[in-house]
Task: inverse folding
């Protein structure tokens, strides 16, 4: 296990510890309501804790595996073992529970499912094989290797990463580099660097040609 992978595994373990504490709080909330229902049923629906009953139940279902993952990650850190799986990359997004929780990026490789950072999801090309390293006990994602080479005839948006597809869509909207930079919260120079890589990936040399590729065949 590399130092960078150990840092990522430690961050995973800390996140699962926080999730376990939230799970404990949710269990205490529902437990308190259950006791109140036994002692004085008429007060259950008058208790302010009732407002937290549904969120607590959702948290229990969503976080029920967190304590096990936290303990398993600790053992993974001690053992330093790493396993590798190679297979076509499939990317998914799922909503976290709650109105303001946002989405979570999921990487499917082989028969494994990993929660990954958005920056990593932006770098992966769906459908192409990649070697994924993970901690065997907790299943925590650690790193990924280079994907197989792009086809000899570039020019298909299907061969782009998520960030590159997003950039191509903004170019197709007619946005300037400065406008794209503001939209993506990047510097204009970074956008220009991304543009160069995008053009090379598509086998084009100009913004106009890139827009034609984005539009697809007539």
Result:
């Amino acid at each position: 296990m590399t130092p960078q992978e150990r840092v990522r595994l430690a961050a995973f373990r800390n996140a699962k510890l926080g999730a376990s504490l939230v799970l404990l709080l949710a269990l205490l909330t529902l437990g308190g309501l259950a006791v109140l229902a036994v002692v004085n049923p008429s007060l259950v629906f008058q208790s302010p804790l009732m407002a937290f009953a549904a969120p607590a139940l959702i948290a229990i279902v969503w976080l029920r595996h967190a304590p096990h993952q936290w303990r398993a990650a600790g053992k993974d850190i001690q053992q330093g073992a790493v396993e590798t799986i190679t297979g076509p990359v499939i990317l998914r997004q799922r909503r976290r529970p709650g109105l303001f929780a946002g989405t979570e990026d999921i990487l499917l490789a082989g028969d494994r499912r990993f929660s990954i950072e958005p920056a990593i999801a932006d770098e992966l090309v769906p459908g192409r094989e990649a070697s994924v390293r993970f901690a065997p006990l907790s299943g925590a994602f650690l790193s990924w290797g280079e994907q197989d080479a792009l086809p000899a005839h570039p020019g298909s948006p299907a061969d782009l990463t998520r960030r590159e597809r997003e950039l191509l869509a903004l170019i197709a909207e007619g946005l300037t580099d400065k406008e794209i930079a503001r939209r993506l919260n990047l510097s204009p120079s970074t956008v220009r660097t991304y543009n160069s890589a995008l053009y090379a990936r598509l086998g084009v040399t100009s913004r106009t040609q890139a827009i034609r590729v984005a539009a697809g065949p007539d």
